[in-house]
Every structure is written in C-alpha cells, then in structure tokens.
C-alpha cells in the first residue's frame, strides 16, 4: 500500500476509535445519571411506604382528624400514580413528579402537626422510631436529589461539549432534565388544619 493509503487508513482508525470512545463515555455518563434517578425514586418510595404506618399510629391517638388522614391517603396515592421513565425523561414529567412529592411532603407536615397536639402520641416508642426513620429518609432524599443532579450535570456537559456533541447528535443522546423543586416550594406549607 502506498504512503497515502496508510495515512487515510490511519485517519479512519483514529476517527473510529474516537467515535467508540465518545459513545462509550456518553453511555457511561447516562447510566450513572439514570442509576441516580432510580436511587432517588427508591428513597421517595421508602417515604411513601412509611406514610401508612405513621398515619395508623397517629390515627390511633387522634381519631377525629379524619380530613388529615384522607389527605395523607390521597397524596400517597397520587405519588404512586406518577412514574418517571428513565428512557423518556422530560422537564414536564420531572415537574409532575416533584409536585406529587411536594403534596406528600405537605400531607406529612400536617400529620406531624396533628401529632404535636397529642403528648401521649409523641411519647409513643413506635411513633418516635418512625419519626426518626422519616427524618433519615428526608435526608436520604435530599442526598439522592443532589447526586442525581450532579450526575445529570456531568452527562449534559459530556453530550453538549464539542466534539462529543457531534456523536451525541448522531446517536441521539439528549440532554437530561435536572430535578428541581416544585413551584412554590420556597414557601412554607399551609398547615391550617
């Protein structure tokens, strides 16, 4: 083969290796982000699973707080209906998910306010244990959201920077949405019960 043929072959090999490397890097970043999303959803599920136990304990002490219990049940049900598809994440689906989680947080806050009215409930060992678990779960949720957003930031930077943007466009690697607080989350929840 002539010298020119070797040069062309060398360029083709370098380009193929560059495409493979860029593609594999984007797949790795995308997998990291979707794994963090799944971890975040698992923590939200943990919180949703604890709600019936908390409500049951509070209900045993505060039988006339029916409206609060109905709100907790409704919020938990709405959380279960909103699913995130890691293969089709959109800002709208993330906002819908965040809003449903916000409703559950508000319902939980109202449940805790009810609990404050009953000293014998606050002294219950079961209630104390669940309250500690809930506090730990909220911390885990916060950490999971942070990790997800960091993974998405890394992925988004990878697919948007040149020359990876070319490979991302060819293989349909799209920017992923970050998890943002629901609208109005900066305001304290209305706990008028």
TrEMBL record:
<comment type="similarity">
    <text>Belongs to the LemA family.</text>
</comment>
<dbReference type="Pfam" id="PF04011">
    <property type="entry name" value="LemA"/>
</dbReference>
<keyword id="KW-0812">Transmembrane</keyword>
<dbReference type="InterPro" id="IPR023353">
    <property type="entry name" value="LemA-like_dom_sf"/>
</dbReference>
<dbReference type="InterPro" id="IPR007156">
    <property type="entry name" value="MamQ_LemA"/>
</dbReference>
<protein>
    <submittedName>
        <fullName>LemA family protein</fullName>
    </submittedName>
</protein>
<keyword id="KW-1133">Transmembrane helix</keyword>
<keyword id="KW-0472">Membrane</keyword>
<feature type="transmembrane region" description="Helical">
    <location>
        <begin position="6"/>
        <end position="23"/>
    </location>
</feature>
